[in-house]
Amino acid sequence: MELRHLRYFVSVAEEGHFGRAARRLHMSQPPLSQQIRRLEEEVGAPLLSRSPNGVALTPAGRALLPEARLALAQADRALAAARRGARHDGDHFELGFVSSASYLLPRLLPAVRALSPGLSLAVREGSTTQQVELLRSGALAAALLRSPIVGSGLVTRTVTREPLIVALPATHTLAEHRELTLIDLADEPFVLFERDLGHALFDQITSACRTAGYVPDVVHTSSAMATIVHLVASGIGVSIVPASVAQTAAGVVFRSAGDLRAHVALDLTWREDSSDDAAIATVLQAARQSLDWAIAA
């Protein structure tokens, strides 16, 4: 029995659906189903009862689930301990970030180097889901994520809050206005960040539109903020983005909306058992000192 088989089983059991579990694991559904069947063959009994609406645990599956969770947690703790030891030995710090935070790195990284010149800092981009999994496994020391982050064993501290602004193609008729209202965008196609990869920003934007009286017509989503900006520039649609994105945007203009008063938070998140790590304190201090739009958390 391999740990990956247990991880697959736990994901399917928790999601209650092969498709959702496959998305959570960043794999396609057929290989996931095959791996679960191999685990069932090794156990010698079915673990899941399959139906068109999803799956349910069999008696064997209910018996295996808590033990599988325990085995995975122990394996994660062992791996995290080894990786923390490696980081400390070499003064190496692995920092994750979501793509919407990438525009803030040119401010943050020099600030970290100024506070701790001997710290070797490496960065890794990924979705919120990916970053949380890497944090739990110990592959990352900390990550810059959009709140809220749900789950135990993690510590979250807000380092900045950015206003949301409207991104328009430079040739759009609304680009002539210095300030807009959200209702001005009611009939526009929207390009937004993929909700499955980080729901906080997507939900905040769509909620603001609903408050203004309409549901946005989302015609395209992307996992990268830079791609969203390029799609806006090409005329695919409009978007609402964190203010830091306005730094680089050929073919795009950015405007504030008088009734868009929401701010989107950026959090530094790390494992609870790493709270005494001096490097995390350094990165947290650098982030709060160097990032604009800061509002006391």
Could you please describe the fold and organization of this structure?
It comes from Conexibacter stalactiti. InterPro entries: LysR_HTH_N (IPR000847), LysR_subst-bd (IPR005119), WH-like_DNA-bd_sf (IPR036388), WH_DNA-bd_sf (IPR036390). Belongs to the LysR transcriptional regulatory family. Keywords: DNA-binding, Transcription, Transcription regulation. This is LysR substrate-binding domain-containing protein. The chain is of the alpha/beta class. It folds into three domains: 76 residues, Winged helix-like DNA-binding domain superfamily/Winged helix DNA-binding domain (Arc Repressor Mutant, subunit A, Orthogonal Bundle); 107 residues, D-Maltodextrin-Binding Protein, domain 2 (3-Layer(aba) Sandwich); 105 residues, D-Maltodextrin-Binding Protein, domain 2 (3-Layer(aba) Sandwich). The protein is 42% helix and 25% strand. It contains nine helices and twelve strands. Strands 3, 4, 5, 6, 7, 10, 11 and 12 form an eight-stranded mixed beta sheet that branches. Helix 7 links the parallel strand 8 and strand 9. Helix 1 packs across helix 4 and helix 5 packs across helix 9. It is flat and about 70 Å long.
